[in-house]
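Give me the fold.
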Amino acid sequence: MNLSNIYSLRQKFTIIAITGRTGSGCTEIAKALANGFVADSNIYPQPEEFGYGHNAYRKYRVIYDYASENFKNFELINYKDILVAFILKYDLNDLISFLKSEELVLEFKKIKLTTESNFAIEIDTLRKEEMSFNELHEIAILIINDKKKSDDELKRIYQFFNSKGFKEMSDKIHSILKSQSIIKRNKTFQILSNNLRKFGHPYGGTNTNSTNIFVIAEVINDLIKSIRKNNNGKDTKIVIDSLRNPFEIMFFKQRFTAFYVFAINRKDEKRKYAISKRFFEGDLADLDKLIYEEHYGGKSHQFYKQNVSQCIENADIHIAFSTKKEATKSNDYLMKIKENASPYFSWGMQLLKFVSLIDHPGLITPTPEERCMQLAYTAKYNSGCISRQVGAAVTDSSYSIKSIGWNNTPEGQVPCNLRYIDDLINENKEKDFYSFTPYERTNKEFKSVLIENYKVPIEKFKSDLKGRNVCFCFKSLINSYSEGKNQVHTRSLHAEESAFLQISKYGGIGLQNGKLFTTASPCELCSKKAYQLGIKVIYYIDPYPGISKSQILEAGKIGRNPRVRLFDGAIGNSYHSLYEPFMSYKDELALILELDIKDLTKKYKEENVILVNNVKVLQSKVLELQVELDKLKIK
């Protein structure tokens, strides 16, 4: 029996969005999805190369065999092409004026780029493309908008983005703007995308409006609809390279059940080495500034900026980008130290796994690392921190959970998200004034900074709050007027710290050679505690700013140091979505193979009952004959 219909909803439509820092391998992953399964490719090693000495490799064999039959090509949507479409919506002279603008000069200076925003050479080259530009402009001005599209308009969108003319123009614009410096191109497109999300216009504006945040996402959504329409009922698989604004990720998550965010993470030293191969040495210092801005940019009121850190935190699936050679080398090391840990998979092996599980949930079971990180990920939502929620799990060497923690205030104190700032400002003792610390209630300098930052905005934007509780971050406020930024001013225990303290609070358990799972990565303070407790491996998702690895974790006696390992796997809702089977595998195989396995024990019991009954009948007849025979003898 063919079970394709049962899985058709999962297999017919899938959207994967890639996110990650520059140099992490996002483009390589997107291209691999677009190319589909290639059996002889070095990206997807044969299962026989690893043997079957570990259950992880047995799982890979299951995945590989399934992928070889079912892995279909994804249609690639390049984010950078969408930005070009917005450029084409406006006149070429608008682009040239923007490249000459004072705004661009100021944006380059704002993050202290040494690369100058002089586009004179690029502008001369762009003018040569005016005729081709104008032809595409006539189409773009009609279709690049947030209006609901008819079937004919969707058809035009598909034709536009897939036309040879558009693809060539997109390549030319990117090539021209990076001809003198990749930094100039990257920063310019970063500003263009920020402007679109902030003002709804690529070249800026005067009124910031939160409704513009989805301007780019709406066009991508139109393109997705046009692809589905063009496929006319056939399987539609799409990969977006790449999303770096968390609100755009939220946009697609709310619209599509079959939407998955793949965060591509790479060890920092490997990522920097990959970047050095693509950029001129003189550009690297400026590139670090751009990467920092893309990673931590969109905070607070700057919602329109890139914020890769938040995107990674919101991701469904994490791929640790390592080549086949790097994975093999790491596995050799694991064998050498006899580490009880899952072998490293190359990024291609991980990709096969997740794409296969999207199509066929429950094909294999989670790794021990996924199981433990899922608990840490779930725990973080207990956090009352209004800045960042982090979860942690501590296990012994065999992945047995010993404690769970999340960043929160010490037990007995009130979390930040449950305190009302009005109660403190107005010293309202009839309400919850004493949820605030004595320092917050009595320190005059702190109170004046608090009132200065919050009192007027609360009154001004009361209608926009719509009943939201206004609370504040103590660390942010005190660091705003103190010298330097001090991490110890946070009211909360860190998630890792809380997990460690749970063990000492409720009974000591030896953690020598244990493992720590954290949804971020441990700061210097928590790294020292992990080192002291004898933690052997630290699994992390996104690097925390600091020097914990080089200053603490790699210091001291060789062999005593905890190893840090990038997490790869599915967490959150996707953990259930990928690993919860539609039916038991036994039943699935029975339906496909039309098996009707007889219960031989029951059969033999039934046959035995028949034989026993037959014997009884025969015995009865023998007795009857014996009686008749006895009668004859008497006669």
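The longest strand covers residues 13-19.
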